[in-house]
């Protein structure tokens, strides 16, 4: 066997790993850009419910086209699977997204992303309450670090208007809903498959959001300036559909731990984009808090 023959599998593995890193970076950037495009769309006076409805209505056909193209089907879902999937879809993609979009009306994209970054700490606390998972000293220390950092970030907001604090509360609720989704979804995912679960959960959330829109808005609310539709399409594709599939492909190539580490760049990417595009800024104290929050979340998300 020649040296060239031996090196071919190694080169293939290296290329696969590099492509996995690129996919993970693309996913992190896509998710990080969501708040930026939402804030840009809000400049045209579209409300949160209408924009979120457009996002899900435009994203859902793409998910189902991919689903049909894959032609993959798992074992039949039980009635319990269906009810759990409905509940998790409502928590993770409907309520979480709704509170997030409502919060972004008054909260900066940078602060929103940083609050959402606390979801691993919420997941740990929920697991301790409902699954009786013990909180170790390491985890307890990470929780203290994370919330100390968030206090530093929020400190300059203490003198802010009430509307800003309402938005902060809404983003915290979004984070809590997403943590509920992450806490209770693994068992269902293990039975029905990750992508199948995601596609069906998004279908549930889209149906809920369309129902919400129909009950609270008139259909004339969809008569919007073309930039709103353009931003909604970008949110649906660049910040929703593409990152979800890129994330799954990245995990298949480089593993979940490395993908998670790359994904932890999300808040910094959002802050950078917020400064560059939206002209947002953080004070020195908030930058310190950002570093502390990221350190705490990284510690709680990694065993080593």
From TrEMBL:
Keywords for this protein: Membrane, Transmembrane, Transmembrane helix
Membrane-crossing segments per the record: 21-42, 48-66, 86-108, 114-132, 139-158, 164-185, 197-216, 228-248, 260-278, 284-301
Record-annotated EamA domain positions: 19-154, 166-299
KW Nucleotidyltransferase (keyword) present: no
GO cellular component: membrane
Chief location bin: membrane
Compartments in which it is found: Membrane
Membrane topology recorded in Swiss-Prot or TrEMBL: Multi-pass membrane protein
Superkingdom classification of source: Bacteria
A Pfam family this chain is assigned to: EamA
InterPro entries assigned to the protein according to its UniProt record, in alphabetical order: AA-Vitamin_Transporters (IPR050638), EamA_dom (IPR000620), EmrE-like (IPR037185)
PANTHER family: EAMA DOMAIN-CONTAINING PROTEIN, INNER MEMBRANE TRANSPORTER
Family classification: Belongs to the EamA transporter family.
Protein name: Drug/metabolite transporter (DMT)-like permease
């Amino acid at each position: 066997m020649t040296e060239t023959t031996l090196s071919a599998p190694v080169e293939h593995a290296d290329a696969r790993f590099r492509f996995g890193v690129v996919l993970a970076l693309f996913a992190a950037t896509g998710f990080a850009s969501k708040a930026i495009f939402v804030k840009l769309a809000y400049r045209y006076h579209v409300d949160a419910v209408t924009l979120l409805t457009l996002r899900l209505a435009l994203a859902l056909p793409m998910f189902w086209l991919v689903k049909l193209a894959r032609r993959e089907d798992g074992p039949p879902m039980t009635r319990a699977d269906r009810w759990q999937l409905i509940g998790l879809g409502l928590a993770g993609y409907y309520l979480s997204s709704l509170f997030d979009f409502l919060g972004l009306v008054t909260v900066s994209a940078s602060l929103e992303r940083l609050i959402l970054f606390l979801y691993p700490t919420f997941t740990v606390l929920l697991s301790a309450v409902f699954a009786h998972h013990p909180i170790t000293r390491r985890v307890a220390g990470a929780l203290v670090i994370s919330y100390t950092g968030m206090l530093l970030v929020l400190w300059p907001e203490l003198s802010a208007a009430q509307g800003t604090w309402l938005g902060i509360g809404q983003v915290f609720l979004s984070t809590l809903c997403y943590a509920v989704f992450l806490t209770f979804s693994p068992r269902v995912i293990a039975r029905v498959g990750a992508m199948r679960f995601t596609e069906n959960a998004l279908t549930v959330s889209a149906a809920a959001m369309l129902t919400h829109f129909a009950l609270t808005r008139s259909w004339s609310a969809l008569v919007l300036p073309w930039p709103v539709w353009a931003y909604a399409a970008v949110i649906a594709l660049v910040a929703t559909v593409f990152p979800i599939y890129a994330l799954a492909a990245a995990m298949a190539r480089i593993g979940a731990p490395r993908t998670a580490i790359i994904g932890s760049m999300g808040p910094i990417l959002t802050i950078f984009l917020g400064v560059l595009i939206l002209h947002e800024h953080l004070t020195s104290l908030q930058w310190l808090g950002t570093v502390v929050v990221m350190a705490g979340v990284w510690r709680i998300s990694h065993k080593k």
